[in-house]
Amino acid sequence: MPKAIVLLSGGLDSAVALSGSVKDGNETIALSFRYGQRHSRELDSARAVAEHYGIEHIITDVDMSLFRSSLIGSSEDVEKDRKDIGKDIPETYVPARNIIMLSIAAGLCESLGADMIYIGANTVDYSGYPDCRKEFFAAFEEMIRAGTKTGTEGRPIKVMTPLLEMSKADIVKLGKRLNTPLHLTRSCYSGNAKACGHCDSCILRLKGFKGAGYEDEVEYE
User: Fold this and answer.
1) Widest CA span of the chain, in angstroms?
2) In b/e form, how buried is each residue of 20-35, taking b as 16+ CB within 10 angstroms?
3) Would 217 be classed as within a structural domain?
4) Domain-located, residue 126
5) What is the tally of structural domains in the chain?
6) What is the pLDDT of residue 79?
7) DSSP structure string for the chain
8) What CA–CA distances, in Å, run from 15 to 11, 120, 144?
9) Which of 7, 37, 54, 216 has a CA 20 to 30 Å removed from the CA of 181?
10) Residue whose C-alpha is closest to residue 68's, from 95, 42, 43, 50
11) Whole domain around residue 49: which residue ranges?
């Protein structure tokens, strides 16, 4: 059975990507990060999703507190109600976050004998992060092919991006078809008990559910 490491933030996209890995017949291991994010409540959602599937779930600490981002710590407000989401790189961008997380996932693949990494990145309805684009993942896959033992031995680790060119509505529809526990997920950038409904992530999520014709079961302020 192929083995896959899935980057599981606890949000909509990562949960649907995990569902896809399970459906693909992989032995699936979820990997989440505690990196100083203000919205660390998402880790509770990640745990709930992993428990739903009964899979191994690894949460590891990575200190990104020295990076400048409105998602790190709580000293800076997260941008709300942006009109041109995806047109520029927002203040919620965490420098090199996907590079760091995918690198750790690649090391875990080599350590555990996994064949691939799943990530729920998306470039259709997204906030404009440069490390969510097709060319980034192609370059990263080539880097780990050249820089890992498995890659040099002809067994390169694959980076799977099944949601990359899907709209948020299509992701919600896929999640419904896969019976993904979307009600357990959390996409909000705030650290509040309920989702704010105004940050980029909430706006895109709500747009996706509306476009798919479903009601989001997550509580909003």
Assistant:
1) 52
2) bbbeeebbbbbbbbeb
3) no
4) yes
5) 1
6) 74
7) --EEEEE--SSHHHHHHHHHHHHTT-EEEEEEEESSBTTTTHHHHHHHHHHHHT-EEEEEE---TTS--TTBSSSSPPP-S-SSTTSS--TT--TTHHHHHHHHHHHHHHHHT--EEE----SSSS---GGGSHHHHHHHHHHHHHHSHHHHTT-PPEEE-TTTT--HHHHHHHHHHTT--GGG----SS-SSSB-S-SHHHHHHHHHHHHHT----S-B-
8) 6, 8, 24
9) 37
10) 95
11) 3-212
Entry pTM: 0.93
pLDDT at 85: 67
* Token pair for 56: 């191994």
- Tell me the Ramachandran region of residue 25: left when phi exceeds 0, alpha when psi lies from -120 to 50, beta otherwise: left
In the predicted model, residues of the chain with pLDDT beneath 50 are none
Integer Rg of the chain from CA? 17
| Residue where the block lists tokens 């060119």 | 165
Cβ atoms of 68 and 61 closer than 8 Å: no
Q: Is 220 a domain residue?
A: no
Q: For residue 50, what is the domain's CATH number?
A: 3.40.50.620
